[in-house]
Amino acid sequence: ASLATGPRQNNGVFYEIRTYDIKPSKMKEFVEMVNKYFHLRTAHSELVGFWSAELGAMNKVVHVWKYDNFAHRTAVRHKLASDKDWQGKFISPVLPLIEKQHNEVAYLVPWCQLGKPPKEGGVYEWVTFQMKPGGPALWGNAFRAAISAHINTGYTKLIGVFHTEYGLLNTVHVIWWNESPDQRAAGRHSAHEDARVVAAVRDSVRFLESQQNVLLIPLQCSPLK
């Protein structure tokens, strides 16, 4: 299998990645509020996915939004600020539940289209790579080869590869899907014994500063389930 080839990012489309740390005693309440009222937010713009961390982090949620361009995002933010239902029913009661917020702007890499899982009910792995300064001109080909090698094993499904534009630069977020954590573990063991994967990863890690893996569970409101 090979990677799907998407159009280069010359049409303005970008993705905002929002990560919230929730107070440990308030996680259940936060998820309940999201499930009850998040339709008010998705009425304004497209939600790609909304997940809570299961392994690799605790009391953390990640959600991804798609915008046509920066003017689109600005217009959406203005509308949200004047939406009394959204502000009163969700924002006001939820803000005290949140310890920290972080956002990034990222583009899909030109060689990847946003994918979907073959069925609902699986788990997502969010892998963040901090690459050496220099950008894709330095490490892009090696990184793509490593991702492609993992796909070619057939043990996992690629959902998307995002490269940051605002936030910590030279960061790449990769989202994978598996039917279960056990399937993911078995596939990883097989990949580590695959000479093609080993060679590609060995070449790519020359440009790697750090890596973090988080296992995510989709929330009820998430389009990616």
TrEMBL record:
SUPFAM superfamilies: Dimeric alpha+beta barrel. Pfam families: NIPSNAP. Residues 15-113, 124-223 form the NIPSNAP domain. InterPro entries: Dimeric_a/b-barrel, NIPSNAP, NipSnap_domain. It comes from the Eukaryota. GO terms for biological process: mitophagy. PANTHER family: NIPSNAP-RELATED (PTHR21017), PROTEIN NIPSNAP HOMOLOG 3B (PTHR21017:SF19). This is Protein NipSnap 3A.
